[in-house]
Design a protein that fits this description.
7-stranded mixed β-sheet, 4-stranded antiparallel β-sheet
């Protein structure tokens, strides 16, 4: 069973920063667009950001200028640096690997207190 292992969630005050990381098996990582999605209570799961195997990035409008996604091929890890956090960023954040198949992590909670 393929596992995407997420870390870095937690509780932070509005305006603060958090960094999420997700590690995938190397064979999956190298061939996949890696991304982060989030799901707030009672809402659908939405795209936050993606980074392709070639390094092209894509962001939701709501996080542009505040979040930065990056991939570390040596560690098969995708990172999401989240700055200037807002209460509306509160959600469970899920790592995603999309190639020939799609894999999801179990999610990590991010809570931003006002």
């Amino acid at each position: 069973q393929v596992q995407l292992v997420e870390s870095g969630g937690g509780l932070v005050q509005a305006g603060g920063s958090l960094r999420l990381s997700c590690t995938a098996p190397g064979i999956i990582f190298s061939a996949s667009t890696m991304g982060w999605y989030r799901q707030a209570p009672g809402k659908q799961r939405d795209l936050v950001a993606t980074v392709s195997a070639g390094g092209s990035t894509n962001y939701a409008d709501s996080v542009k200028g505040r979040f930065t996604i990056s991939r570390d091929s040596a560690r098969s890890t995708v990172n999401l640096q989240m700055n200037s956090l807002k209460p509306e960023d509160t959600a469970v954040y899920y790592c995603n690997a999309r190639g020939g198949l799609t894999f999801w992590g179990r999610g990590t909670q991010v809570t931003v207190a006002s």
